[in-house]
Design goal:
The protein is built from three helices and three strands, in the order E-H-H-H-E-E. With about 110 residues, the protein is of the alpha+beta class.
């Protein structure tokens, strides 16, 4: 059984989130939170909240033991992109893409 937590339309690039998700994949929840706490990346605060949410889902909704949980699967997919325009030289304009992400974390119980 697995507990799922999703974070949709978060205003950070999927590329930046993927780097941090690769650090915690397969780790226990306690170890993953410790890694995120001391990693200086912008996505870490969001992922700590998401892991805590997934852990609360596992304990309250599925009756799993909170101490035996580990990050079974975690991935990020691109969401919609905000397109903005910025002026550049010679009266031209340049398009700026502000990317968003959908982050999913699945916690599983160790046997």
């Amino acid at each position: 059984m697995e507990a799922i937590a999703k974070l949709n339309h978060v205003r950070i690039s999927p590329r930046k989130v993927k780097v941090v998700l690769d650090l915690i994949r397969g780790k226990s929840v306690k170890q993953a939170v410790a890694i995120l706490k001391y990693t200086p990346k912008a996505a870490c605060e969001l992922l700590i909240k998401l892991i805590n949410s997934a852990q609360a889902n596992a304990v309250n909704n599925f009756g799993m033991d909170g101490g035996n949980l580990y990050v079974g699967e975690c991935f990020v997919t691109p969401a919609s992109i905000l397109k903005r325009v910025r002026p550049v030289s010679k009266g031209r304009s340049c398009r700026i893409l502000k990317r968003m992400s959908h982050v999913t974390i699945k916690l599983k119980e160790a046997v």
